[in-house]
Amino acid sequence: MTMTAVRPPKSASRWWSLGVIALAQLMVVLDTTIVTIALPTTQQALGMLDASRQWVVTAYTLAFGGLLLLGGRIADLAGRKRTLLAGVAGFAVASALGGAAANAGMLIGARALQGLFAAVLAPSTMSLLVTMFADQRERARAFGIFSAVLISGGAAGLILGGVFTQYLDWRWCLYVNVPIAITAGIGAVLVLPGIPGRPSGRIDIAGAVTGGGGMAALVFGFGQAAGHGWTSGLVLGTLAAAVVLLTLFVVLQHKVRQPLLPLKVVCTRNRVGAFLSVALNFIGTFGVFLFVTYQLQTVMHYSPVQAGCAFLPLMVMSAITATQIVARLLPKVRPRTLIAPGLLIAAVGMFLLTFLSTDSSYVAHILPAEVLVGLGSGAVMSPSLNTATRGVVPSDTGVISAFVSTSQQIGASIGTALLNTIAASTTASYLAVHVTAGQVEGNVYGYRVASAWAAGILVVAAVLAAVLINTRTQRVG
Fold it and tell me: Which of 220, 241, 259 represents a domain boundary (last residue)?
């Protein structure tokens, strides 16, 4: 039985299903940032070094991004509802293990396990969304809501992380997923359509190993540069291995009969532009959470709750842009007229962070940057998702959805690792030259330099989006 034989649910049921999908996706997105606000406390409690603290974040996004293509293929074979339920259940178990972590290794391992089950869950959510909303106006609204969850969910994680860290314990940043998972699982059983899979298909094991291994090596290489330097044998060897594995992955996808990633489906001009927009947007903006969190708590002495709430303007702006502005404009204008300006606006926001100092105030320096980053990012995700999934036949929605999520998660992983490495190495160089400067002053200088790199990445992304994405307006009516 093929997916085309199943009709999408009726209108009311679709919107209830969207609520369940958004809740499941919210759980996944929350965990990219909810531990970030607790990271200073967690680092002290478990005795982590500065160069390794990023792995609490990166272990999750690395496992998530590296295994997403395999998760998308499993969803195609086993069925979206079934894989979503399996992902939700496994995510809850991994979260409970992380909350009970006795040391840094156990915590990082649990975070990686969370990423594994998120990779099973996420392609199903987006694929169900694409399948259920065929009407362009309804799809624009649904994508707007979904995009708001993707963007503002990260900021919501920071707020919850602050509340849990200050009033309960940092471990509740992980335990909170258990009740969310139970609620999402019950909702999925009750309202999600049972779209069947294709059990006759096969899994491209070689593609999963080379693709996932290549992504893992890439992010690991970026992350190790913070402690070992860009010219160390470990870093160069790991990055070389990433190039070899990813090249082999592409070659294999050309040769196997049932590839993990059918290149003819994803390698179109507009989809490449959409994937790059998503990836570079997350590379350029994800670092704002890490740097601003440390600026607020270690430099400006905000409490965890105050630091979390300080991100509320970013969350509000991204949600308003995605659900109220972009959702109305997307059926009327070309996607690139939203994506490219959005990336440029976010770049301006990151550029404002290059003026941070030890005396910076929230209202004058951080708030304007957050507003612009939220406004810009909110204008990028929904049009990119719409462009990537436009014209996709139902049998390919899993792989396209997985690759969109891969672009997002690998962007977040590389962004965190790369920008943290730039900040750490810049701080070390600054303190070596300015011997009378304190550690805090050196850290802030590192944040400024990393923010400049992030702004440059977003400008490049805007240019690529303007050049590559040329799909026309999807008229409605």
Answer: 259
Dihedral sign computed on CA atoms, order 225, 226, 229, 230:
positive
The pLDDT assigned to 122 comes to 82
* C-alpha span between 264 and 268 (Å, rounded): 7
Residue 13 structural domain: 7-203+260-468
Query: Which stretches of 4-49 are DSSP H helices?
Result: 11-33, 39-46
Query: Does the residue 95 lie in any domain?
Result: yes
Alpha helices by DSSP H, 103-232: 104-132, 136-167, 172-175, 177-191, 205-228
pLDDT band at 87 (very low <50, low <70, confident <90, very high): very high
Residues 242, 219: Cα–Cα separation, whole Å: 9
Last residue of one domain, picked from the residues 259, 277, 298 = 259
Structure confidence at residue 123 (pLDDT) = 80
The CA distance from 191 to 140, in Å, is 21
CB count in 10 Å sphere of residue 172: 18
Average pLDDT over the chain reads 83
Residue 63 and residue 23 share a domain: yes
CATH of the domain at 73: 1.20.1250.20
Residues near 241 by beta carbon (within 8 Å), at least 6 away in sequence: 214, 217
| Pair (162, 244) in one structural domain | no
Q: Are residues 150 and 279 in the same domain?
A: yes
